[in-house]
Amino acid sequence: MAPLQHSLRAVQRAIAAVLVTSLGAMVVLTFVDVVGRRLFNTPVFGANDITEHLMAVIVFAGLPLLTAQRGHLSIDLLDAWLLRPGLWWWHKAVDVLVAAVLALIAWQYLLSVEEAQAISEVSPALTIPRAWMYAFMSATSAVAAVAALFVGPPQHHAEGEEFGS
Asked: How far is the C-alpha of 79 from the C-alpha of 70, rounded, in Å?
């Protein structure tokens, strides 16, 4: 395996570990919060803030991986016609459009970082500064935008074939 591929695999594993850990933490937190609320009438203070931040980590950490694997939702109504090799230009045009939208999202979150710093925006209960989360969202959206430009050609899935099989 080439050194670059080895490095990319290591990054993918690290991101997957972050995703699994974040999801596990969110599940445990939600369980403890519900049990505390129902049985002891004592919810976990700041559970909504923590859950909100963990959800953002899950969505945006996974965004570059999903984009690099062409894992976004797609409709296959026209696959028989659009997946012909002669339409490579169409696929690249769609890739550029996806990259442009992701770059716009990254830019908007970058503007949100500046605004959040200017107004000292924090989460409601735990007063966690929001600027760092917006910066994370901006960075991962930018990485996903670059990934969208370098994805391989789309694959045609046979009738009834499940995603990932």
From this structure: 14
pTM, rounded to two decimals: 0.82
What does the pLDDT look like over 41-62, one tens digit per residue?
Answer: 999 999 999 999 999 999 999 9
- Adjacent-strand bridge partners of 129: 122
For residue 130, CA distances in Å to 9, 25, 39, 76 come to 30, 20, 32, 38
Task: Specify whether the CB–CB gap between 43 and 37 falls below 8 A.
Answer: yes
